[in-house]
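In response to the reviewer comment on reproducibility (Comment 2.3), we provide here a single inverse folding case reported in full, input and output, so that an independent group could reproduce the run without further information from us. The structure tokens appear first.
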């Protein structure tokens, strides 16, 4: 079992990111059993849910004449427009039923401000509004964050980068994550993660306590 200063952060294991979902990540469902195995090795697990109001700024449907996967310029920067996904309270926003982490201590819901997206579990896309997760983790003595889930190149990468920026030692578990890979986004994400000092690991090594 991991030390009390380690946390496993499971990102967005929700139906809309699974095959058949509104914003499906290819083979996204394959990470659920891996996440369950990993969770057995951690006394401290935190989950996230993408959790948008129906009028959310990241939905292409809320921008006249725009289609999903285009980008638009918003006051806080460039925003990819997505299909409508993870609307608060809908089945698509629910956590996968096979996720078996009854000991998860907290669920961080992100993207709930209508005019700001939040890929990251720590900081919204305006890069200044905190979700409160860094403060919570610091207050309970966490030093190291293990991130995985969906999608590697968006919410997992942004969360890992922000965990690192917040001063936590950070590990991204590659085989417990799957990517969207839009216009080279996966390679870009790994470059940024490496440059920031985020470690890249496999679940077997994490479970063996070798990373
Ligand atoms: Zn979203």
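Designed residues, in position order:
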């Amino acid at each position: 079992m991991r030390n009390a200063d380690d946390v496993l952060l499971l990102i967005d294991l929700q139906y809309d990111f699974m095959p058949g979902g509104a914003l499906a990540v290819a083979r996204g469902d394959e990470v659920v059993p891996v996440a369950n195995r990993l969770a057995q090795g951690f006394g401290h697990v935190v989950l996230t849910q993408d959790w948008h109001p129906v009028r959310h700024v990241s939905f292409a449907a809320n921008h006249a004449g725009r289609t999903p996967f285009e980008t638009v310029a918003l006051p806080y920067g460039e925003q990819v427009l997505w299909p409508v996904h993870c609307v608060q309270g809908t089945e698509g926003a629910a956590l996968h039923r096979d996720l078996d982490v009854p000991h998860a201590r907290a669920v961080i819901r992100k993207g709930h401000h209508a005019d700001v997206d939040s890929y990251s579990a720590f900081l919204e896309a305006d890069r200044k509004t905190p979700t409160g997760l860094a403060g919570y983790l610091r207050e309970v003595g966490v030093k190291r964050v293990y991130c995985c889930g969906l999608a590697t190149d968006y919410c997992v990468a942004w969360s890992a980068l922000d965990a690192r920026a917040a001063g936590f030692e950070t590990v991204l578990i590659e085989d417990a994550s799957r990517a969207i890979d839009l216009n080279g986004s996966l390679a870009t994400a790994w470059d940024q993660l490496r440059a920031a000092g985020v470690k890249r690991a496999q679940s077997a090594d994490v479970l063996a306590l070798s990373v």
